[in-house]
């Protein structure tokens, strides 16, 4: 089995986000990014400016909480 490819995503300090399973559109975990840098992950990540914008982005993307 091949390892999943990794993606590098730049992020600015103070942003918030969620990592999610692309196949099921289920949120894996939430994150706050205190410093500017790069995220290297095999999971897709949705990044927003603040919690309110993140809630709107989650709804727009059709993501759900895991049970």
List keywords for this structure.
67 residues; alpha+beta; 4-stranded mixed β-sheet; 1 helix; two-stranded antiparallel ribbon
Description:
With 67 residues, this protein is of the alpha+beta class. It is 16% helix and 46% strand. It contains one helix and six strands. The protein has one helix at 51-61; strands spanning 7-11, 15-21, 26-33, 37-41, 45-48, 64-65. It has a four-stranded mixed sheet, covered by helices on one side. A hairpin with a 4-residue loop joins strand 2 (15-21) and strand 3 (26-33). The N and C termini lie far apart (27 Å).
Q: For the terminal residues, how far apart are their CA atoms? A: 27 Å
- Strand residue percentage: over 45%
Q: What is the makeup of the main sheet? A: 4 strands, mixed
Determine the number of helices (DSSP H or I, runs of at least 4 residues).
1
Number of strands: 6
Shape: flat
On the 0 to 100 scale, the average pLDDT is 92
Instruction: Give the helices and strands as they follow along the chain.
Output: EEEEEHE
Radius of gyration from the alpha-carbon trace, in angstroms = 12 Å
Structural class: alpha+beta
Give the proportion of residues in helices: 10-25%
Strands side by side in the biggest sheet: 5-2-3-6
Give the low-pLDDT segments. none
């Amino acid at each position: 089995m091949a390892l999943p490819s990794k993606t590098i995503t730049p992020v600015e300090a103070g942003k918030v986000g969620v990592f999610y399973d692309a196949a099921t559109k289920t949120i894996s975990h939430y994150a706050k990014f205190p410093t500017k840098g790069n995220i290297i992950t095999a999971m897709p990540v949705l990044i927003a400016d603040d919690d309110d914008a993140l809630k709107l982005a989650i709804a727009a993307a059709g993501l759900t909480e895991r049970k």
